[in-house]
Design goal:
With 294 residues, the chain is α/β, with parallel strands linked by helices. Helices cover 40% and strands 24% of the residues.
Amino acid sequence: MPNYVLSCCSTVDVTEDTLDARDIKHIDFNYELDGQWCKDDFGRTNSPAQLYAKMLAGAEAKTSQISAGDYAEHFERFLSQGLDVLHVTLSSGISGTYNSALAARDLLAEKYPDRKVVVVDSLAASSGYGLLVDRLADLRDEGLGIDEVAAWAEEHKLEVQHWFFSTDLTFFIRGGRISKAAGLMGGLLKICPVMDVAPDGSLAVKEKIRTKQRAIKRDLQIMEELAQGGLDYSGKVYISQSECQKDARELANEIEAKFTHIDGPVRIWDIGATIGCHTGPGTVALFFWGKSRA
């Protein structure tokens, strides 16, 4: 048995049961909905449907990173048991939580001189972050030590490909990621922006494609171009979605028909509250192992 725990944040956008089954510990993000603080706790506080209904009705949603104090409390649960901690954070390109985790590590160093907390910036988001943590759990289960797993993560984390498209630009406009003029024109022309996560972990608009069907086809084409092994890709594929299960399933069906060697069926997850507060409903995100984004 390893003498360390693998840990992440709830923003990995898989299910809590999945994390529990893989013995991956987690800490919940927070968000504010019309002045009320809520936990991004895998939909227990607000299911995705409830969250988006409230947002569409005009509720103001704001996200909040995990504090250094909360991280310290989370890490200490394990350090006090004589265990080290490998914690993987949401991308520093979209959240300051990486720095909070580092601050917590430093706060605890004097109290637990014989223990270590290793913090890795995933430079990933949503279920792409989940895909990375899942691979690290494989390596831990193979017997790799905490430093070996952390080193592997640093070397390979940019190989996680993220490709998003959205059919509803409302909350991208509200959050300032797309201008009102561009959003209005995009709505009229049925434009679905195709986005990825840049090497610095930030979200970047790559292409503007008309119609959802073309965006789905473009995601499929991108995967063929970038996946490790091309059409012979044999890794896992994750898709996350915000209240557009039908679109996500259509993309998954296309992938399963074209990439016949993938590891199991395509896993479809809900986009959690933290990411969902920024995307709103109508977003589909595709994740797979591919060429490095560096």
